[in-house]
Amino acid sequence: MTGIYQTVVVFAVLGLLALVLRYFVGNDRRPVPDLDGTDFGLLSEVAVVPTEEAATVLVQKLRRNGVRATRSRNAPYQVMVFPSDVANARLVLKT
Description:
2 domains, three-stranded antiparallel β-sheet, membrane, transmembrane helix, alpha+beta, transmembrane, Alpha-Beta Plaits, single chain, 3 helices
């Protein structure tokens, strides 16, 4: 009889824990992720170039000047930075 009681208590506790976790963690209401690669979230575009090599050169130039930068994976390649770095990135790219 004790074995059945312990089993019932264990399953009740696990069920309660599952409900509590589902309530506090399980309701993910974020939008569907961007699967086509066109949404870059917080990043802002500062340049668009036709080749991967040109984008890599611009990203390296920005990084050498202290601006955090990245590029898109698809042509035409977009060079992107965080919004707080847009002014500095445009200044660097003009020179």
